[in-house]
Each structure stands twice: as C-alpha cells, then as structure tokens.
Amino acid sequence: MKTKIMHKFYLIALLPFFVLVLLFEILPLINIVIESFSQVGGGFTLDHFIRIFSTRLYQQSIYNSVWISIFSALCGIFIAFLGAKAAYNASTKVRNIFSTVLNITSNFAGVPLAFAFMILLGNVGILTLIGKNYGIDFLANYDLYTINGLLLTYIYFQIPLGTLLMLPAFGGLRKEWKEAVSLLGGNSFHYWFKVAIPSLLPSILGTISVLFANSLAAYGTAYALLSNNISLLPIRISQQFVGEVVQNQEFGCALSLVMIALMVVSVLVTNKLQKKSGGVR
C-alpha cells in the first residue's frame, strides 16, 4: 500500500516535467509535421519537399550542413578523446579544474564565439596582425570569413562538449585490463587498440552522434560570421520565419522536418553501429 502511494506521489512530482515536454516538444513537433504537408491556403501537399530536393539552393544547404557536421564531429571527437584521456590520467584535483573549464567553454558558442574569432583572426584581428608584422603567412593570409573559417569555429565548440561526454567513459576502464595485457606480452598499442578503444567504442559513437546533431542545428555562429554568404540548413529555415517581406512557415516547417529526419538517421545509424560493437543489447 505504501509503495503504491509513493508511486503515485512520484508521478505527481513528474507532472510538471510531462507538461513541459508536451508543450515545448511534442505539440511543436506535431505542428511541424502538419504544417510541412500543408498548403498556404490549406490542404495537403508534397510541393514543399519536391521544392527542397529539386532546388539547387536547398540541396546545397543540406549538403553543406551534413558534411560540415560530419567533419567537425570527427575532428572534435579525435581531440576530445585525447583530452579526456589526459584528464583521466591526471590527478583528481587537475581533473576537477579541467572539468570546470570544459563546462564554461562548452557554453561559449553562438554569436559571442563568432565575435571572439573575429577579434583573433578577423581582417584586423590580433593573430592576423601578429602574422603580418612578423611575416607568418599562415596567420597573415588566413581568411576567417570562408567555409574554412566556419569549420574552425565549429570544431572549436565541438571539442569541450565532446570531452565532457567522453570523460565518464574513461572511468569504465580498469587498470587490471592493462596489467593483464602486459602479463600476456602485449604493449600499450595492444592495450589501446585491442582492449580500451573497443570498450570505449559505444561511447565514442554516441558522442559523435551528439556532436553531429549539435553542429547540424548550430545557427548563431554561422550567421554572425558569414550571414547569408553560405547556404546552411538552419539559416535557410530561419529565412522562412523572419523574412522582411514574406514569411513562409509551411515551407520552413518542411525544411525543419528534413533537419529532424537527418538527426533521426544519425541516431539510428549510431545505434546500429553500437549494437555491432556490443554497446547496446
């Protein structure tokens, strides 16, 4: 009897959470799906999706968003893996300080991040002027306002998030495993590539999926840095809702649904790979 009462109490305590999920996630998602297949004057249509996949502008925006997200996620996970490994081998005090710094930097994104890179690597940025004064061609000639500059900013904000996500995974490694490899005649190479990395693979794949979604939906940094000079899916979506002349929310919802579909595909692919690696049963 007491267990049933506590169970009901927990359900009541979770009610505000369920209300928030309903109002800010489920209902908006339903509305996006409905609007995506609706004409401006009402009625069902597939014209929005036909336009998206047959127009060069929107094809390019999907392509750019996907490959930038994949590239930044892979670069981010590589550096994050090394950072998490270094923190794992450090003392508890150093690890706590490192985690604090990561928490701060992982939230430093969007427009502030774009402005910070402008100050450092813009046309009159600090590092750019240093490169010009001391003859460092790489810094002097670096063009931040290109796709390469955008990639640099994306990789930057992927690293702290990826490191934060990878840190707990390293806690699952056991010192006994390394000792067992040594007793069997193995070295560090055998330990990492035969034991440690396969054990961490589910976490690595899950982190890549999160980083992909994080990059795919990023808007503020790209818009502040390049405005409309690059075709990205989030920028094209925003144009349908904040246009100065005409707003086309039905078409914007269709673009949003395409982005959601890309994220769902990335999650499904990750889950499939995790099952093959033994991380999900």
Task: Give a quick set of tags describing it.
79% helix, 281 residues, mainly alpha
Explain what the structure shows:
The protein has 281 residues and is an all-alpha fold. The chain is 79% helix and 0% strand. The chain has 13 helices and no strands. The model has no long low-confidence stretch (mean pLDDT 87).
How widely separated are the two ends? 35 Å
Work out the radius of gyration. 23 Å
Shape: globular
Number of helices: 13
**Total number of strands:** 0
Task: Spell out the helices and strands N to C.
Answer: HHHHHHHHHHHHH
The major beta sheet can be summarized as: none
- What class do helices, strands and sheet pairing give? mainly alpha
- Can you tell me the residue ranges where pLDDT is under 50 for at least 5 consecutive residues? none
Please indicate the percent range of residues in DSSP E strands (runs of 2 or more).
Answer: under 5%
The residue fraction in helices comes out at: over 70%
Mean pLDDT: 87
Short description:
This protein has 281 residues and is mainly alpha-helical. It has helices at residues 2-36, 47-54, 56-89, 92-106, 111-121, 126-134, 137-140, 147-170, 175-183, 188-216, 220-226, 233-239, 249-277. It has 13 helices and no strands.
What is the fold's blueprint, element by element?
Elements: H1 2-36, H2 47-54, H3 56-89, H4 92-106, H5 111-121, H6 126-134, H7 137-140, H8 147-170, H9 175-183, H10 188-216, H11 220-226, H12 233-239, H13 249-277
